[in-house]
Amino acid sequence: MERLPGFRDFYPEPLPHPGLWSADARQFIFEQWRATAQRYGFREYDGPPLEPLELFTTKSGDEIVGQLYNFTDKGERTVALRPEMTPTLARMVAAHERNYKKPIKWFALPQLFRYERQQKGRLREHFQFNADIIGESDLAADAELIALLIDTLRSFGLTAKDFIIRLSSRNAWQEFYDARSQKSEVRSDQAHVFFQIIDKLERETPDESKRKLGLLGFSLDEVNEFIKSGTPTIELAAILKNLAAGGLGEFVRVDYQVIRGLAYYTGVVFEAFDVQGEFRAIAGGGRYDNLVKLISGGKVNLPALGFGMGDVVLLELLKARNLLPKFEAALDAFCLIEDETLRTESLKLIHDLRGAGYAVDYSLTPAKSDKQFKRALELNSRHTFKLERTETGELVVKLKKHPARKEIITNPLELAAKLSAEE
Ligand code: HAM
Q1: How far does the centroid of ligand 1 lie from the alpha carbon of residue 271, in Å?
Q2: Nearest C-alpha to atom 30 of ligand 1 is from which residue?
Q3: Chain segment 147-196, per-residue pLDDT in tens
Q4: Which superfamily is assigned to 10-320 in CATH?
Q5: Buried b vs exposed e over 191-213: b needs ≥16 C-beta within 10 Å?
Q6: Quick one: which of 58, 79, 143, 158 could link to 242 by a disulfide (CB 3.0–4.6 Å)?
Q7: Whose CA is nearest to atom 1 of ligand 1?
Q8: How far is the CA of 52 from the centre of ligand 1 (A)?
């Protein structure tokens, strides 16, 4: 049985084949994500991987809706695997926001599902670090979130030579659109269609973009000129100033080419890319001040902003820059059971050590001592020990530290202390 295309199996290291996905690398990425989010005062939340289809069809926009894994369940409900976390977060916040002080700073590490055309950096399932701030309209929140994005990437050892945050604003594009829609040839109700064309500028041919823009009454030249100007709006200038004050100025630049594909963004938007332009976007986000209101049917109105960073491109980038640590599983100790009459006593000792927090393993079935020893070394055990009965009937432990193989003899009750002393 093959797994589905675009889905991944994660194996423990060392990997049998370099093309496989590493469970250790995934864990490493999760740990950095969590640690950085917590350093910024974000709290972890989660929601269900399966949601009512409607949660996504009205809110996320056409592109993501075309990629939904949706079906009718046995209770005749139309449901979808979550393609993104933001609508779930908006629902959760709207339901219980009164119990949380604002601004709410939350993060999650969901697995998401999109029926995408498979390509480099894009699969049909991925894990995404989501960090969002809800209930704060001040631009300081936008700067704080971008700072978190920068520091998350820096926590992996990436520098300004490796990545850049391209900062833009839907407001700037909206103004551009409105100014021209006052002229009769541009329709005033097609801003979302216009945004989609801008979002795809880098991925479509100039002729295709020109044709689509022409249908709305725009020329590709005027669009390109606006992008080239790159003049920061007042809000972008404030964010740049805030980031520069924190020493993060070199990681950000204004780039109006970014507008974001999702329909719900309302203000500042941004994406993180590798500087050399080899990979797809590492992360993307922005302000979505109307989504909580929309999802709560008008009951709760809170400004919000956030970003999502996928594990797929990040891992490709870390591999390319040689920034992944070497993953070596290790045990604190391996118990050699050479005398089967001492298996019961050995088990007691093993469980005591595990209870005290040590990683301990042993041979589940009787085995020759050289075989047990070999397994201990294969498992990268820092110690081996075995129980022995002295001539006077007393139990002692022979403990060896590796790789030196220096042996000491100790009392079973003192083994845990000896293991830490030896570290
Ligand atoms: P998004 O731009 O659709 O935003 O996704 C964010 C990141 O997730 C992308 O930059 C990319 O790293 C990763 N990603 C997306 N799709 C795939 C895929 N098919 N395979 C691998 N990686 C992928 C959102 O999802 C927004 N909900 C983020 C957000 C949170 N905005 C506000 N809060």
Answers
A1: 10
A2: 307
A3: 999 999 999 999 999 999 999 999 999 999 988 877 656 666 788 889 98
A4: Bira Bifunctional Protein; Domain 2 (3.30.930.10)
A5: beebbbbbbebeeeeeeebbebb
A6: 143
A7: 284
A8: 20
Q: Is the beta carbon of 312 within 6 A of some atom in ligand 1?
A: yes
State if residue 154 touches ligand 1 by the CB under 6 angstroms criterion: no
Nearest partner of 321 among 186, 168, 153, 172, judged by Cα? 153
Provide the mean pLDDT of the chain.
Answer: 94
* pTM for the structure as a whole: 0.93
> Hey, what CATH topology would domain 333-422 get?
Rossmann fold (3.40.50)
Cβ 86 under 6 angstroms from ligand 1:
yes
- Cα separation, 186 vs 90, in Å, equals 34
Task: Express each pLDDT in 292-308 by its tens digit.
Answer: 999 999 999 999 999 99
Tell how far the Cα of 283 is from the centroid of ligand 1, in angstroms: 6
For residues 334 and 146, give the distance between their C-alpha atoms in angstroms, rounded to a whole number. 46
User: Is the distance from CB of 152 to CB of 129 less than 8 angstroms?
Assistant: yes
Is the model's pLDDT at 105 over the cut of 90?
yes
Token pair, residue 238, equals: 């404030």
* Residue of minimum CA distance from atom 16 in ligand 1: 122
The residue nearest atom 6 of ligand 1, judged by CA position, is 308
Whether 317 lines ligand 1, by a CB cut-off of 6 Å, is no
pLDDT digits (tens, 9 = 90+) for 333-391: 999 999 999 999 999 999 999 999 999 999 999 999 999 999 999 999 999 999 999 99
420 has pLDDT over 90: no
Q: What is the pLDDT of residue 314?
A: 98
- Model confidence at 60, pLDDT cuts 50, 70, 90, reads low
Q: How many CB atoms lie within 10 A of CB 339?
A: 14
CA separation for the pair 80, 77 (Å, rounded): 10
Residue nearest to ligand 1 atom 33, measured at CA: 306
In the chain, domain spans: 10-320, 333-422
CA dist 30 → 8, 105, 127, 201 (Å): 16, 18, 9, 33
Tell me if the bond preceding 103 is cis, omega within 30° of 0: yes
What does the angle CA 240 – CA 241 – CA 242 come to, to the nearest 5 degrees? Answer: 90
Best residue among 312, 316, 318 to mutate for probing ligand 1's pocket (most ligand atoms within 8 Å of CB) is 312
